Amino acid sequence: MHASFHPQDNALIRKLESVFALTDDERQALDDLPLQVMDIKADQDIVREGDRPSRSFTILSGFTSTYKVTGDGRRQIVAFGIAGDIPDLQSLHLKVLDISVATLTPCRVGFINHEDLWRLCMRHPRIAAAFWRETLIEGAIFREWVVNVGRRDAYTRMAHIFCELLVRLKAVGLAEGYACNLPMTQSEFADAIGTSTVHVNRVIQELRANGLIELSGDRLNVPDWEKLKHAGDFDPTYLHLENAQAAA
Amino acid sequence: MTLTLQPVRVATGSDEEGMLVFDEEQRLVAVLTHLGEQYDGLSGRWYLEAGFGRLGVQDHPTYADLDEAQAWIRQRLARER
């Protein structure tokens, strides 16, 4: 069992397999990728805008936010990262980071040297293609978020984010049925959907009152998936999942 | 600048108490809402429900009381773009 040497990096393999069919060899090559594992507390920057990293990181467990800050100090979260994601994969090709990534919860991350990533891609062109596909899907998610923030009302935006997170978590085995852990605070959701904490509070109350979501602590449960999808104007096509079941 | 306040009920979903805020020329510049019990850490604060002109900001702030809200509004209205 090679996996026993790197028990944590299965998240990356699970993630890639959710969007790309890997062979045993490719799975093994990913499993053999040297990782420098690090545990990071909640609310810490992992990388910052302007950095010139010589490595990227994959999330082994926990949640991150990818964000940018305006000139007068206001934060816009542009993506949430979950286990298996490589939020700063772009730095392999784009030398200066144009985003910052912070932990939302305590995270275990695995740093991968760019040299090793290059070598992996040279030896396994199909893995390079899988990363490319993954990057394209990341772009598709950003486009969906532009529509969300620019044109949907706060109630729909919030429902949309819940749908997206649930489907993404489900695709990497981190949801049970239509329930998952969702540790984001209302203020973090506000920064992601471009509205105020007060407004997020109100739309979440409304979603609960309408029976679309149940929240207890960090736990989200969706009693009626079709209804939430409809409320969130959510069509999972843009996530381009291999297993359409995950998006059902 | 002297601001005038006029109490109003705001249909936010839970029918909250609020204030219309007028400038010296009796033009409506903002609507403030007094946040009820359901807002955890923000309950009891005043929220910029809507702001017009220079008060049309993306992230609507909250204020400890009406004095703080009015100070913010005055400062914002006086500011050059």
Automatic annotation (TrEMBL), chain A:
It comes from the Bacteria. The keyword Transcription regulation applies. Gene3D superfamilies: Jelly Rolls, Winged helix-like DNA-binding domain superfamily/Winged helix DNA-binding domain. Residues 152-226 form the HTH crp-type domain. Pfam families: cNMP_binding (PF00027), HTH_Crp_2 (PF13545). Keywords: DNA-binding, Transcription, Transcription regulation. GO terms for biological process: regulation of DNA-templated transcription. The keyword Transcription regulation applies. GO terms for molecular function: DNA binding. PROSITE patterns: HTH_CRP_2 (PS51063). This is CRP-like cAMP-binding protein. It comes from Microvirga subterranea. The lineage of its organism: Bacteria, Pseudomonadati, Pseudomonadota, Alphaproteobacteria, Hyphomicrobiales.
From TrEMBL, chain B:
It comes from the Bacteria. This is Uncharacterized protein. It comes from Microvirga subterranea. The lineage of its organism: Bacteria, Pseudomonadati, Pseudomonadota, Alphaproteobacteria, Hyphomicrobiales.
